[in-house]
Amino acid sequence: MEGAHQMTQSRTGPRSAGTPASVEDGAVTSGAVEDGAATPGAAGDCVADLASFSASWERAVSSTNFLPAGRARSRATLQGLAQRLVAAVTAEPFDASAGYRVGADLVAADISSPRALGHSLTLLHQRLLADAGVTDERTPARLADLCGQLATGFTEALRDRALTAAEGINNAERAAWRDKQYALQARLQHALLHDQLTGLPNRSALMRRLASLVADPPADPPSEARLGIVLLNLNRFKAVYDSLGPTRGDQLLLAVARRLRALAAREGYYLAHLGGDEFALVAERTTGTDDAVKVADQVLRALPERMSVDGHQIPVTARCGVVERPAGRADPTELLRAAHITLGWVASDHRTRWMVFDAERNAAEVARHELTAAMPAALARGEFTLAYQPLVRLADRTLAGVEALARWHHPELGVLGPARFISLAESTGLIEPLGLRLLEQACAQAAGWRRLGPAPPFVSVNLAVAQLRDPGLPAAVAAVLDRTGLPPDLLQLEVTENAIVDTGDTSLDVLHALADLGVRLAIDDFGTGYSSLAYLSEIPIHSIKLAAGFLRGLAAVPPESVPPESVPPESVSPESVPSGALAPHTLPPARRSNDTLVPALIDLGHDLGLSVTVEGIETAVQAERLTGLGCDLGQGFHLGRPTTADEITRLV
Amino acid sequence: MDVLSWVPDGVDVTVPNVARAYDYYLGGYHNFAADREFVARVEVAMPGFSYAAQANRAFLGRAVRWLVDAGVRQFLDIGSGIPTLGNVHEVARQSAPDARVVYVDIDPVAVAHGRMILADDPYATSIEADLRRPAEILGHPEVLQLLDFSQPTAVLLMAVLHFVPDSDDPAGIIARLRDGLAPGSYLAISHVTASTHRREIEQVRRLYQHTLTPGLPRAPRQVKKLLAGLDLVKPGLTRVDDWLPDSMRATRHPQAEVMLGAVGRTR
Asked: Which residues cross the membrane (chain B) (predicted)?
């Protein structure tokens, strides 16, 4: 037999079955099945018998193995595999690696459970040759070879599948982690750059945006790019928020954010929510301040006067600080700070709802801040001293007293007058230690003059509002007098009308206590503050000082000597006419002048038993006129400029 | 804004995951030790529970072939699990090579695995989404890219509705899915019931309580209620291995009785 002959050859040929190389070498394919099936005389029976065999094979594996392909499809697959095994067992030359591929193909057909392999090997061993009608005595040994190869191919394919699956699921796990990490990172990034309430970009995001606009200005050419920033917040927001409660307060902010968002979307502005009631809009490609002002105007119009929150009509008005400048030269931090400063100006000025940043005003404020910050150290270093300006008895032009005037010997700015720093000291509270220090200097100086002559000058020292508010002031003054040995009647303390009115009852108590010490009290700048005359009868004052302003327009001679009709109406400037509803319109304009007021005030002072001093006397004519009016003391450049203590000593 | 969770759900492989456990029931290898230990405990609670999973998978294959024969070429497989043995796109394409499939799962690992397998397939993909938010699925950009909801579509909800408690309104979810589909579309579902094996299923339910997706069985009438507004194709709601079985029936394991299946047509 030819088949037997081939088998003999095959058996004599040594084969190293099972290695992948040998599988590829012996590429016996389905062609072998057709050859086997086409063996004359045996073909019909063989196919019929294998149908029965493959049915048994399929039943054996389906009882223990889930067949995703379904039973019918799996049975067809198994029948094909059975035919390939029968072909292989009779093929010349014999090639055991066909068994390897059948094992691998079982796995590929998802017939891959360990039990399926066991059942398959048992069934093949028990029935394949008999069912195929193969009777050659060498075929059992060949079948054993094929089964060995089948087991190898099956397990290798299964191992590959398991390893691939394990690697796949591990990669999937890593990929899932990575995706989650990216997602978390994105959420974190978003959270860091957006306001939690409104979801709008926050301050950090705005700074990034500004930085990118500055670094890469969106214009052509970039050097000509400009940008505008409008910072806004709501008037009285804190009070509104407190009265609404946090939930409705947040709803109000959301309503504001919605309107601004719509505006920003429509006009292409960048909108940020810096927190609380503070929002910012950035406009790119502005051409000048007007464009940024237009944004502010749009903002103010976008917010209605009243907003409905939870059925309540909430009055809402916004205010805007506007900054506009070339993008390339801007610094994001500085831009935002300028907008903040401008918004602060608007907040303290009730006449306007928006303002444009003013570099000069800012520079002045910066200088004030620097001066304020330098004051405590300056006080410690003794940079504050006093100058003294004579207070002259007009009747005989003798020295009655001196006003002590604060001076700051600033190491860089030179000598600064009180106008430059007293209000700053008041704002920080430094005025109290500074005031006491200067008071002590003045008293010590006056005590020294007292030893020089029989009629020593008194010293007049200004008191600030904050000092007057301090109930401990009288005791402090008493201690100073005690330490310096100055009799109280040689000390005059000057207070303004406003100080008395602003500080209320406390200051009245303090003034009485000071008067009880025997100290003289003077009202400084009398008649210029917003006050009533009622206090004149309530407080223990000794004198009033009229400000230099009362000398404006004071004629050299009494007006009685000039007929009123000779004064041409044009000579009365509009500014000199007192305004206000209380102005006596029936009085001729010429008589509503200092020519009328000054004599009346001097008479008033004298009628109340007060000494009257006039400040700011700059000419001999003024001095003469005031002397004629009976004014007690005079002060001014004409009578003596502020000077050193040594100069005063010489006068004494 | 929600407080960020630093360990996202579903990525901790030391917690058993139902998608990977299902893969192991079917004899797959896409699972971790925790999943295999979980399946071992389920098999102790109810020996042969794997047969129910296998019967469910076989039902999926028959249902997809039936839907392809009914002319459906678009499939939205929600709760698809690990794309492993007998995938929808493979089954559908045996007779309809132009079939398009989007797999949806809540498990990020299953989705990541699906995306890797389908990376080179222009007509199939896998997305992470939550069945409880059907609008997000129907409006998902990748879904809209692959599926045309003006054409008949089959939404597959295989062994997933029992993970949706009544408090999440499963009937409403199904209604919203149904209303998003063209007339002549289909919903195919399978669901765990406890008409038989009541005690065993209760123990299995307790085991699933320790996963991220606790489940609950529903009575056949409750399952039927979920399908209101759909015309069920014959044989209606049956145990899954009785739904249009192949001419060569698989072994009818009694445990498979806990899985009910049905296919409904939208009006």
From this structure: none
Average pLDDT over residues A29-56: 55
- Considering the domain architecture, whether residues A386 and A416 belong to the same structural domain is answered as yes
Running DSSP on this structure, what letter comes out for residue A608?
T
- CATH 3.40.50.150 for domain B18-265, yes or no, is yes
Give the pLDDT confidence score for residue A351 in this predicted structure. 86
Q: How far is A339 from chain B (nearest CA, A)?
A: 30
> How do residues A232-278 score in pLDDT, each as one tens digit?
999 888 888 888 888 889 999 999 999 999 999 999 999 999 999 99
- Residue B31 reports pLDDT greater than 60: yes
Q: Can the peptide bond before residue A642 be classed as cis, meaning omega within 30 degrees of 0?
A: no
A450 shares contact with chain B (CB less than 8 Å)? no
Per-residue pLDDT averaged across A302-326, rounded?
A: 88
| Nearest residue, CB atoms, A168 vs list B1, B6, B116 | B116
Contact B86 A177 (CB under 8 A): no
- Tell me, yes or no, if A166 comes closer than 8 A to chain B by beta carbon: yes
CA distance A630 to A274: 65
On whether any CB of chain B is under 8 Å from the CB of A167, the answer is: no
Percentage of chain B modeled with pLDDT above 70: 96
Residue A243 has what pLDDT?
A: 87
B194 residue type, one letter: A
- Assign residue A640 a region (left: φ > 0; alpha: ψ between -120 and 50; beta: otherwise): left
CB A28, CB A34: distance < 8 Å: no
CB A277 within 8 A of CB A271: no
CB contact under 8 A, A179 and B247: no
Domain harbouring A528, CATH code: 3.20.20.450
Asked whether the beta carbons of residue A68 and residue B85 sit closer than 8 angstroms, the reply is: yes
Total tally of structural domains belonging to chain A:
3
Q: Is residue A410 part of a domain?
A: yes
Could you tell me the residue ranges of all domains in chain B? 18-265
In angstroms, what separates the C-alpha of A113 from chain B's closest C-alpha?
7
Distance from CA of A149 to the nearest CA of B (A): 24
Structure token digits, residue B209? 């309580």
Give tens-digit pLDDT for B38-85. 999 999 999 999 999 999 999 999 999 999 999 999 999 999 998 777
Mean pLDDT (chain B, rounded): 92
Compare CB distances from B112 to A68, A179, A187 and report the shortest one's residue: A179
Residues on chain A touching B117 (C-beta within 8 angstroms): 168
Compute the count of residue pairs across chains A and B with CB atoms less than 8 Å apart: 93
Q: Cβ contacts (< 8 Å) between B249 and chain A: which residues?
A: 71
In terms of Cα–Cα distance, which of A7, A86, A91 is closest to A47?
Answer: A86
The pTM assigned to this predicted structure is: 0.61
Residue A138 phi/psi, 5-degree rounding, is -85, -10
Chain B residues whose beta carbon lies within 8 Å of the beta carbon of residue A62: 250-251
For residues A393 and A633, the answer to whether their CB atoms sit within 8 Å is yes
State which residues form the domain around A242.
203-357
Residue of B nearest to A175 (CA): B112
